[in-house]
Amino acid sequence: MTESGSEIQSKRVREGVVVSSKMNKTITVLVTRLLQHAKFNKVIKRHIKYLAHDEKNEAKEGDRVQIVETRPLSKTKRWRLVKVIKS
């Protein structure tokens, strides 16, 4: 417990590829994860798209980026850009 009486929750961080940067201050990030099938033990790829806030419009399509969870910024945006890892 902290001084305020509640535990600080760590924010979730994801890494993915920008698939769209056409919106103003918003990017679409495709995050791919690998998981193992419970019965067949085969490795499966799973994809999910996140809308992330990009304040300076610095990320372009094809860039590898890091995003972090944040407060709701709009109806669908709950993530923001931390840094561009690879252009």
What is the topological layout?
Elements: E1 13-20, E2 26-36, E3 43-53, E4 64-69, E5 79-86
Key words describing this protein structure:
about 90 residues; mainly beta; 5-stranded mixed β-barrel
Explain the overall architecture.
The protein starts with 12 loop residues before the first strand and ends with a strand. It has a 5-stranded mixed β-barrel. The radius of gyration is 16 Å and the shape is globular. With 87 residues, it is mainly beta. The mean pLDDT is 92. Helix content is 0%, strand content 51%. The relative contact order is 0.27. A hairpin with a 6-residue loop joins strand 2 and strand 3 (43-53). The protein contains no helices and 5 strands.
